Amino acid sequence: MLAFANAKINLGLNLTEKRSDGFHNLETIFYPVKINDVIELVDSEETLCIIKGIEIPGNVDENICLKAFKVLQKDFNLPHQKLILLKNIPVGAGLGGGSSDAAFLIKLVNEKFNLSLSKSQMERYARSLGADCAFFIKNEPVFAYAKGDEFEDMELRLTNHFLVLVKPPIHVSTASAYADVKVRQPITSLKKLIHLPLKDWRAHIFNDFEPSVFAKHPQIEEIKAKLYDADATFALMSGSGSSVFGIFENPVKLQELELENLVFYNV
Ligand SMILES: C[C@@](CO)(OP(=O)(O)O)[C@H](O)COP(=O)(O)OP(=O)(O)OC[C@H]1O[C@@H](n2ccc(N)nc2=O)[C@H](O)[C@@H]1O
Ligand SMILES: Nc1ncnc2c1ncn2[C@@H]1O[C@H](COP(=O)(O)OP(=O)(O)O)[C@@H](O)[C@H]1O
């Protein structure tokens, strides 16, 4: 049985408060993008994880897919499974690949073993694995707040636009990016600003990770500038980086982009 775990981008990200538990309150718009990892569950003599595709730093036994399976195993009598993960989503990219794998693994186990878990029950399991994970249960554009694990539905579709995603060969660790940020209370909530016309996003919609991540990695800021040079209506680093996306109103001429590490181009 297979699951296709897609990535996300953050259309704006305001870090509003450092919490007493060490986490940060934030507001962001999660927007799913069609670049997928593939997860397969196969009956097996023992529970293990096999990774193919892009290399993931760290020990395979620490893979979040395995963690997600074990969390469910505690509550349900699940038989041993081989978890095969084909990794296509760049890692350390701010694209939520690991979080998505965990959420889609939960959905896959729910389906394969007829656990009859509701969406909110699956969100609860996902939330226990990482702040970003719960979003991928629903996997629709949402306004997210609190740790990024509480949501409000929103009508936002970038159809009729063109999305370019660039992932430079830089790995940004989410935890260290959070350690470097400055929080600020925005004057106007992103929930409101996102309804401005796309042409106005550049002046009003920000990612609060950019200043500290750009200071460490000027190459990422240069990519953003190149996307604007190429006529992007809006460009932003996704999450804690290092990937940067550009939203274009007209088809992009790839030849003219002069960007390496282009990983994604989609309507
Ligand atoms: C920054 C964001 C923006 O969407 O995404 P990525 O860039 O990683 O994709 C997320 O907040 C990443 O969420 P996620 O990757 O699930 O984080 P977790 O595993 O829960 O936490 C990793 C570490 O980041 C910090 N953290 C995370 C979430 C949050 N709201 N405040 C925090 O301070 C904590 O130090 C925590 O120990
Ligand atoms: N299935 C997985 N996919 C990606 N990373 C994973 C996975 N399981 C564990 N990790 C760990 O999580 C870290 C960051 O994961 P990732 O979701 O790619 O972050 P980001 O959303 O910031 O790009 C990796 O460096 C890796 O050590």
Automatic annotation (TrEMBL):
Swiss-Prot/TrEMBL keywords: ATP-binding, Isoprene biosynthesis, Kinase, Nucleotide-binding, Transferase
Ubl conjugation as UniProt keyword: no
InterPro entries: GHMP_kinase_C_dom, GHMP_kinase_C_sf, GHMP_kinase_N_dom, IspE, Ribosomal_Su5_D2-typ_SF, Ribsml_uS5_D2-typ_fold_subgr
Annotated GHMP kinase N-terminal domain residues: 63-137
PANTHER family: 4-DIPHOSPHOCYTIDYL-2-C-METHYL-D-ERYTHRITOL KINASE, CHLOROPLASTIC
Role: Catalyzes the phosphorylation of the position 2 hydroxy group of 4-diphosphocytidyl-2C-methyl-D-erythritol.
Record-given protein name: 4-diphosphocytidyl-2-C-methyl-D-erythritol kinase
